[in-house]
Every structure is written in C-alpha cells, then in structure tokens.
C-alpha cells in the first residue's frame, strides 16, 4: 500500500524550513481547532505567489500571518481522487479510487483498518464538519471515490457542543467553471500576462481574465471565513490550512500533470506562530496534509498513511508523485515523479492525443476550441503544436528551475540521461509498491461514462442553443460572444 520509508522519505534531514510555525501540541485541556479552507480548481495565481494581475489581499494577509509553501503539489489534477487522498491519507491508486468519477455502484468500501481522517478526530473528541461556503446548513463538496457512512458530524462548527474542539472543512466552489465574474474589481483582458503556453488571442485573454476575476471572488470568501473566526473569538486557537484541491481549469492544466494542474497553493496559519510570513521552498504533496493535520491535533498518524507530517523537523520529501487515469469518459494513464528541480512524466498511451475528446473540456474551455482552430491553420508551433498532435512522447522531462512552464522536453537529450534514468527508476519503485489499482477498468464502467457524457453534451449544447455537430470555427465565434457577455 505504500513505499517503505527508506524509499518514500529518502533524503530525510533534521532541518525543515518553516518548522518554527509548528503549533503547540494539543493537550486535553486546550485542544486546538483545525480548519481546512478548500478552493475548487485553484492554481497559484495569487498575489502572495507572485501574480501581479490579481488582487488577493485576504489570502496575502493569511500568508503574512503564517507559512506559504511554494512547492505544494497534488497527487492528481482532478477533484474526486484528490479529495479521496485528502480524506484517507492514501494514494488513490492504492485503493482503486483513481478514476474520475466512480459511479456509486463501483465504489468500494475502504480497505480493512482504513478510515476517513474524521474517524480519528471523533475518537479524540472533536466535532467534524464539512460545509459549503455561504450555506452553512448545507454539506460541502465531498465527491469521494469510496463508500463510507456518516463521514462528518455536521455541516458547520457552530453545531458542536459548547467548548468542543472542531475539525472543520469549508468548501469554496470557485474558481471551478463556469467562472464567477468580479463586478467589484474587473480585470482588463488586454493587460493580463497569459500563461506562456497559450496563444495570444482575445479569446484566451478574456477566458484567463475571467478566471483571475473568479480568484478575486475566492479571496473575498476567504476573508469572510477568517473574519468569522475573529468575531467568534476562535482565531487564536484555530490552525488554518488554505489550499486548492487541484490546479486551474484550463488547457494543459486541470487533469494533466504539468504544474498548471498539480501545483496548488498551500498556506498554513498556526496559533502563536513565531515565524510569521515565512516561505517554505521544499517540495510537498497534498497527501501530506492529512498526516500533518492529525499530528497537529496530537493524534497519532496511522501506520498505513502515505503522507508525512511536514511540521516535523525530521521529515522532508525527496520525491512527489502524481497520477492521471480516466477523467469522465476519457481513458488515459499518466504518472509523474519530481524532485526539487526536475519532473519526469510517463505516458502509458503515447498513441493517443493529449486532447482526446472530453465533453467537459469541449463545452467548457474556450481556449481549447481556439487552439483546435489555430492548429488546423498551422498557426501553432513548439509545445502548443505538440499538445495538439495525434500522438505524444512516451517520456517527458523538464527542468523546472530553468523551464517552469514545461515547454522544452529533455527526455531525449543525452545530457540529461542520468537524471531521466534516476527519476524513471524511482517511479518504477513507486509503481511497484503503490500503483495497485485495477487495470484495465471494467468495460461497463467506461461505457457508462461514455453514455453519460453523450447525454451531458446533448443537454449542454441545447442549453447553449447550438447544434451538436457545430464546427470548431463556429463554436469559436460563439465563445467570443459568450466571453464578451460574461465580462460586461
């Protein structure tokens, strides 16, 4: 179920940057509250992460009061397996939770002896809740790929007994598409800095600007949550984690293992921290969040957990692993491993295009339609053209220090052969010990999601008022009008 510690935590050191922010261990007399604020589809496009196009004062202030983790990566770039990992402390591929999504009929109970992390908090006397931002009486997003009963005690920490400590999650549904425009502080599409991979076009600029506006909306939501902690006198006894479940919902990001999909913000504010405003530069995985959360509450981390306690000064990761499998009706299998500098990606289906048909992307990503039109015209080059090709390389290798946008694949370069082989061998070790999910997936499950996607496409195109067989060129024209209306 997991790699031996000698492999997973190879490179263990005694000094861990940011450890001064470790909260005071819990005691029975003064148990600390713990809050997860989870944004859906949020990349690192925040002021505190260096983006100058967005205004995120509340999140920036949270970073100033806590620790910002610069290199935090998710185990996968889509919600259900990522959230399954967060709730179990296990890689989703180790217990058949890797597909997105899993129909209720195919969901399995957790392996014997494995429990959602809320089980351990309940045993320690905590009230556990999961609520939707702005609607505390409604449960927040769960979308787990396993069966479990009564994971949470309620939907809001206000439902707990007087004086009872809480482990609460508040789910922010943004910036998941469709984007919520920021009418208070709109962003000029002409002035945004586009991701290096995207073609410079009014459609890509407007779509990116809308995403950034929605990030600003998220910032205000975070501000309201933190303000509530202050008003209720809870801020000084609540450990706050703020993070995204995966990266931004754009081309070559969400669902993929490039940094746009797996690099997400993580900010932790600890009560009475002595190192406020610190920045942690070492690699972390979101599978480390549940382990760290339990340890911070003074709860023993289960032996089966795949994550580590990143507050512990004696633990430091050498590698971070990420994975992609079926996403809705689109069957794929990609794995990656990265160290502090390099990322290695292995494509198990190199004869399939990156842009395999996917209803969600077809009906949600204007820039994808734009790139399809430009590709037909021969107006894409380099990594853009590679991504639109009908095949892909077996292996990819990127130097993230010199090429943070992952545009130059070094896998075939003789100068990087040793680095590639080292990471490839490390991935093999991880696969042998962790990647134990069922392959191939049952044919009836794949067929179910294909049928479901066709129905969803029909419904959505009807809502758009468009024919199902619309050409890419006409769809692009429709997207231009849609974006203009959203930005008004």
UniProtKB/TrEMBL annotation:
Listed GO MF terms: arylsulfatase activity; metal ion binding
Superkingdom is: Bacteria
Keyword annotations for this protein, in alphabetical order, are: Calcium, Hydrolase, Metal-binding
| Domain Sulfatase N-terminal, chain residue ranges per copy | 33-299
Q: Where are the transmembrane segments?
A: none
Question: Which Pfam families does the annotation name?
Answer: Sulfatase
**UniProt cross-references to CDD domains, sorted A to Z:** SGSH
Family, similarity comment = Belongs to the sulfatase family.
Q: What is this protein called?
A: Sulfatase N-terminal domain-containing protein
**Species, as recorded:** Sediminicola luteus
User: Source organism lineage?
Assistant: Bacteria, Pseudomonadati, Bacteroidota, Flavobacteriia, Flavobacteriales
């Amino acid at each position: 179920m997991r790699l031996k510690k000698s492999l997973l935590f190879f490179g263990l050191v005694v000094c861990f940057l940011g450890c001064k922010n470790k909260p005071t261990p819990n005691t029975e007399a003064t148990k600390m509250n713990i809050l997860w604020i989870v944004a859906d589809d949020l990349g690192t496009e925040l002021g505190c992460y260096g983006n100058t196009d967005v205004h995120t004062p509340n999140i920036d202030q949270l970073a100033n009061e806590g620790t910002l983790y610069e290199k935090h990566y998710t185990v996968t770039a889509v919600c259900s397996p990522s959230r399954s990992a967060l709730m179990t402390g296990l890689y989703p591929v180790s217990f058949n939770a890797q597909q997105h999504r899993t129909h209720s009929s195919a969901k399995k109970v957790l392996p014997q002896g494995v429990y959602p992390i809320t089980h351990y908090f309940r045993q320690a006397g905590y009230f556990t809740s999961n609520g939707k931002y702005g609607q505390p009486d409604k449960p927040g997003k769960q979308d787990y790929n396993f069966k479990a009963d009564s994971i949470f005690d309620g939907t809001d920490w206000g439902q707990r007994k007087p004086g009872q400590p809480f482990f609460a999650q508040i789910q922010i549904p943004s910036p998941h598409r469709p984007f919520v425009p920021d009418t208070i502080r709109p962003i000029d599409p002409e002035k945004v800095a586009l991701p290096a991979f995207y073609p410079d076009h009014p459609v890509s600029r407007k779509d990116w600007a809308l995403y950034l506006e929605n990030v600003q909306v998220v910032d205000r939501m975070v501000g309201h949550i933190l303000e509530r902690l202050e008003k209720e006198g809870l801020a000084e006894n609540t450990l706050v984690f703020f993070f995204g479940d995966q990266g931004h919902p754009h081309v070559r990001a969400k669902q993929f293992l490039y940094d746009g999909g797996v690099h997400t913000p993580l900010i932790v504010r600890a009560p009475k921290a002595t190192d406020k405003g610190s920045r942690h530069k070492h690699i972390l995985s979101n599978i480390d969040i549940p382990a760290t959360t339990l340890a911070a509450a003074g709860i023993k981390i289960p032996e089966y957990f795949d994550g580590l306690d990143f507050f512990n000064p004696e633990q430091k990761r050498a590698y971070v692993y990420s994975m992609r499998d079926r996403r809705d009706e689109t069957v794929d299998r990609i794995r990656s491993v990265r160290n502090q500098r390099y990322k290695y990606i292995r494509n198990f289906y190199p004869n399939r295009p990156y842009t395999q048909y996917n209803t969600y992307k077809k009906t949600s990503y204007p820039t994808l339609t734009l790139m399809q039109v430009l590709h037909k015209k021969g107006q894409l080059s380099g990594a853009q053209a590679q991504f639109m090709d009908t095949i892909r390389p077996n292996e990819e290798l990127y130097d993230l220090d010199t090429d943070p946008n992952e545009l130059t694949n070094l896998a075939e370069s003789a100068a990087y052969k040793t680095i590639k082989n080292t990471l490839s061998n490390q991935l093999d070790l991880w696969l042998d010990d962790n990647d134990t999910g069922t392959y191939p997936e049952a044919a009836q499950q794949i067929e179910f999601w294909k049928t479901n996607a066709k129905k969803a496409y029909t419904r959505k195109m009807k809502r758009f008022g468009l024919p199902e067989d619309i050409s890419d060129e006409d769809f692009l024209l429709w997207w231009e009008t849609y974006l203009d209306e959203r930005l008004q």
